[in-house]
Specification:
Layout: E1 6-14, H1 19-34, E2 39-45, E3 57-64, H2 67-74, H3 77-86, E4 90-99, H4 116-142, H5 147-173, H6 175-178
Antiparallel strand pairs: 1-3, 1-4, 2-3
Helix pairs in contact: 1-3, 4-5
Length: 185
């Protein structure tokens, strides 16, 4: 049985007036994480980026290829130094939530997540046209590439486009269907 990617969502209240310092320290900590084996990516989400959610929290999404890689980062001196650097700029304790699969793309303020089958349908609605358009746009200049580099390029592009473009837009567009009362769907 293969391990799945390990993703964690860390939410922190930042002291008023300390936002720039917190963001800088967080960027440095994310750069340190990027040098660890199994690192897949990280993103800093600022308060107010989702117009449907009224919050004052900063969120960091951090992903590794498997739980053991995330644990190695979690137990590292580099992470401890990063936490110490951000500590003067935050209030209270951070909230940490482990997340798995594509559900992270559909994180909202809704009381319960949408059913997995709806997440699968919306994910496919985003991935199919994204992959198709990428094949059309890149096939001429990647046709001489080997299978592995071509697949690597396309999958990185699809994940980036889905994460920061397509999935948030589809989630907004289909919100009422995704989060419909089960008796109505």
């Amino acid at each position: 049985m293969s391990e799945h990617a390990a993703t964690v969502l860390i939410s922190r209240n930042v002291k008023v007036g300390c936002e720039a310092e917190f963001e800088h320290a967080t960027q440095l900590m994310m750069q340190a994480a990027s040098r660890f084996q199994g690192y897949l990516g990280a993103q800093l989400i600022h308060p107010g980026e989702d117009p449907d959610v009224q919050d004052t929290l900063y969120h960091v999404v951090l992903a590794f290829d498997r739980q053991a890689s995330l644990d190695a980062w979690h137990d590292s001196p580099e992470r401890q130094a990063g936490l110490a650097a951000t500590a003067p700029f935050i209030e209270g304790s951070p909230r940490v939530k482990s997340m798995s699969g594509l559900g992270l793309w559909y994180r909202t303020s809704q009381p319960s997540p949408p059913p997995r089958w709806k997440v699968a349908v919306v994910t496919w609605l985003g991935i199919f046209p994204t992959v198709y358009v990428l094949f059309l746009l890149t096939s001429d200049w990647t046709k001489t590439w080997g299978l592995l580099p071509r697949t690597l390029f396309l999958t990185v592009a699809v994940v980036a486009i889905m994460t920061w473009g397509v999935a948030p837009q589809l989630t907004k567009l289909l919100r009422s269907w995704l989060f419909a009362n089960p008796s109505n769907s």
